[in-house]
Amino acid sequence: MRLKAPVYRLKRQARLLSRKSGIPLHKALDEIAATMGYRSWSQLANSERSNERPAARILASLKPGTLVTLAARPGHGKTMLGLEILVEAAMRGRSAGFVSSEFSLFEIRKKMSSLGGETSESEDRLRLCLSDRIAADYVVEQFSNAISGTVVVIDFLQVMDQHRSDPPLGDQIRQLKLFASSKQLSIVFLSQIHRSFNSQERSVPDFRDMRKTNPLDLRLFDVGYFLHDGVLQARTFSERPVL
């Protein structure tokens, strides 16, 4: 059974119900579970663990010091999935950051609100870094004081390759890989897929389909997550499935 809301939102509803009705939290959790069609909260939790959301699956695999990419063609949900990863991270107590030159603060808050991300808990842990100029130096500056375990999503990889005054993209990614390792951060680059990708030949793209305007050693990424028509696959550069 697919939940109508994320587990963290249901837990928040239960806490509010517990305070408002004066009932123990475990009873409030059971009542919320009943509204979702489950006999108890434990049954809901067990069912959700067996059918974990893509964002939760990705977050669980993001070890400190890793560099990954989340790639898809336009309109397939990579931005929303990237934001959902950050909301999941914030609600689980991890610091998070979103770096973008594509969206306004209003647009990001609207997207987060649709995910249930506009909460006092997540706002304290989620930092939004919006700039017209995204480059490795900017990311390093913004997160130089980030704590270990912070998750950063950069929207998106290809915008870092637009200004000749910036270092080559390959050098920037090497710089951020060293930065992620030294600070023990997890950095996720949203990435475009080349329009030549043919879903009739392969149902989901892979590293071969990532759009590049200049040389980039894709082995710098520990893993790539590829999304198409609601199907998510994770692969290493050697194309060995890892999820």
From TrEMBL:
<feature type="domain" description="SF4 helicase">
    <location>
        <begin position="150"/>
        <end position="213"/>
    </location>
</feature>
<keyword id="KW-0347">Helicase</keyword>
<dbReference type="InterPro" id="IPR027417">
    <property type="entry name" value="P-loop_NTPase"/>
</dbReference>
<dbReference type="Pfam" id="PF03796">
    <property type="entry name" value="DnaB_C"/>
</dbReference>
<dbReference type="InterPro" id="IPR007694">
    <property type="entry name" value="DNA_helicase_DnaB-like_C"/>
</dbReference>
<keyword id="KW-0547">Nucleotide-binding</keyword>
<dbReference type="GO" id="GO:0004386">
    <property type="term" value="F:helicase activity"/>
</dbReference>
<keyword id="KW-0067">ATP-binding</keyword>
<keyword id="KW-0378">Hydrolase</keyword>
<protein>
    <submittedName>
        <fullName>DNA helicase</fullName>
    </submittedName>
</protein>
